[in-house]
Amino acid sequence: MNVAERDFKYYIFDWDDNILHMPTRIHLEKRQPDGSWRPHSVSTAAFAVVRNDHENYRPPDGVWENAFVEFQDTAGESESRFLHDTRISLERVMAGESAPGPSFETLRETLREGRLFAIVTARGHESESLKKAVRLFIDVVLTDAEREEMMANLRGYRACFDGCTTFGTDEEELAYYLNLNRYHAVTNPSFKRWMAEATEGGASSGDAKPFAIRDFVEHVVKILSRTGAESLRRPISVGFSDDDAGNVRAVERYIQEELSRRFPGIKFCVYDTSDPAVPDGRKVTVSGQLDFGF
Predict the structure, then answer these.
(1) Is 135:129 a contact under the CB 8 Å cutoff?
(2) Quick one: DSSP state of residue 62?
(3) Do 174 and 114 meet the contact criterion of CB atoms below 8 Å apart?
(4) Of the N and C termini of the chain, which has fewer Cβ atoms inside 10 Å?
(5) Phi/psi of residue 27, nearest 5 degrees
């Protein structure tokens, strides 16, 4: 029942090179010294470095969709590529063979405490694939004691804020919690259609992550409003972490120009995790005044 006294702190995570360093490859062609082009696959981290070097790198056949075939779900596959690569990455991390991403432990803490979160990635997978990856993270990373703490916290939130006096099994309560969160792969066709309809075609690809972030903030406020106006008067913060400095700058501008004005009662924290020399990322805070008008 101690969750009733907690602050309202929520998180939005990019996945690749922020939570995990995934083995997923981007397929490019690289210019050779003789002027010819040869297939050349790169990691997401390497792509962040070379993606603007159009003189030496290009997508196969000039089609960017061909470069990102591993970043989509394929019909008929027994396990999505995202879940498969997450499994490999987690096994390597838990075996000490590779380092986790800079926000790995923050996601672990978020899950252990039972807080709401969103996964917002530039990938094109279905939301269900992202949710299954988070469930895998819980199964592989959390210790028995941490999982027990998580389940106590989840039931505590349901008791304190939903007024529940009876609960389901661990599996049922965990499914309820995971369904409360948001999973946005912003190049997924369904996501792009949804964004186009919501903005009447006025949004570009550069607006996708900000659109997903706004959706999560609106979702959180809606959930809190159901618990009563008093909840909305307590300190609320939303953190966003991403390893792409360009995305971070775009989100910072979006928060400053729109979200902080629309939701003045929320403190927004942006973490730039692009520099491996800064373990927890560079933090930028944008705060509003606690005034929701309720």
Answers:
(1) no
(2) G
(3) no
(4) N
(5) -95, 115
Going 190 to 191 to 196 to 197, the CA torsion angle's sign is: positive
Instruction: State how far the alpha carbon of 122 is from the alpha carbons of 164, 174, 193, 242, in Å.
Output: 37, 26, 15, 11
Report residue 32 as tokens. Answer: 């050779």
The tokens describing 264, both together, are: 């003045």
Within 10 angstroms of residue 292's Cβ, the number of other Cβ atoms is: 17
Instruction: Round to whole Å and give the CA distance between 106 and 104.
Output: 5
Share of the chain residues as helix, strand and coil, in percent rounded to the nearest 5 = 50, 15, 35
What tens digit of pLDDT does each residue of 10-51 get? 999 999 999 999 999 999 999 999 999 999 999 988 998 898
Quote the CA–CA distance of 101 and 18 in Å, as a whole number.
5
Query: Read out DSSP for 166-208?
Result: S---HHHHHHHHHHHSEEEETTSHHHHHHHHHHTTT---GGGH
How much is the pTM? 0.89
Residue with tokens 């008791």: 159
φ, ψ of residue 113 in degrees (nearest 5):
-85, -10
Output the CA–CA distances (angstroms, integers) from residue 288 to 255, 262, 292, in the order listed: 11, 9, 10
Taking Cα atoms as reference points, which of 49, 150, 107, 133 lies closest to residue 280? 107
CA distance from start to end of the chain: 26
User: What phi, psi does 240 have (nearest 5°)?
Assistant: -125, 130
| 175 token code pair | 């499914």
